[in-house]
Q: What sequence folds into this?
C-alpha cells in the first residue's frame, strides 16, 4: 500500500526569479512595475534591504560577522537581480554601476518620482490611473 503526502510549497523554495514585464524607458508603466517588483521583494523578504531598513552589518575587531555580511550580500545581490532583470537596456545602463539594490531602487525612484515637475507629472498620472466606485469612499 502506498501513501502519499502533500506539502505546501514555501515561497523561499522557489529559486527562479519572478517573470514580470519590463519597466519602459519612458516610465509609462512605472507605478504598476513598482507595485509588482515590491510585491516580489516582500515575498522574498528582500524589501528591507532595498529600502535601507536592513543595513549591511558592520564588522568589528572582536566580531567580524563574516556569516552575517555574506548573507546580507547574497540577499542584496538577489534583490538587485530581481530589479535589474526587469529593466530595458537604456535604463539598465543608468544603474549598471550601482553597488547595492538600494542604490538601484533609489535612482529609479528619483527618475520617476523626482522633485518638482517630475513629481507633479507622476502624481497626475497616479490620479488618473485610480478608479472610483460606489463601494470605496473618497475620504481617508
A:
Amino acid at each position: 500500500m502506498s501513501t502519499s503526502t502533500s506539502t505546501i510549497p514555501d515561497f523561499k523554495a522557489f529559486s527562479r526569479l519572478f517573470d514580470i514585464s519590463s519597466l519602459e524607458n519612458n516610465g509609462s508603466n512605472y507605478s504598476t512595475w513598482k507595485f509588482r517588483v515590491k510585491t516580489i521583494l516582500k515575498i522574498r523578504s528582500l524589501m528591507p534591504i532595498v529600502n535601507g531598513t536592513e543595513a549591511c552589518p558592520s564588522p568589528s575587531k572582536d566580531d567580524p560577522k563574516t556569516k552575517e555580511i555574506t548573507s546580507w550580500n547574497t540577499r542584496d545581490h538577489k534583490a538587485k537581480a530581481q530589479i535589474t532583470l526587469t529593466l530595458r537596456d537604456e535604463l539598465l545602463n543608468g544603474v549598471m554601476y550601482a553597488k547595492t539594490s538600494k542604490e538601484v531602487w533609489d535612482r529609479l525612484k528619483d527618475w520617476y518620482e523626482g522633485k518638482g515637475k517630475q513629481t507633479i507629472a507622476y502624481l497626475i498620472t497616479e490620479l488618473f490611473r485610480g478608479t472610483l466606485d460606489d463601494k470605496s469612499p473618497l475620504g481617508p
Observations:
- Confidence is low (pLDDT under 50) at residues 8-15.
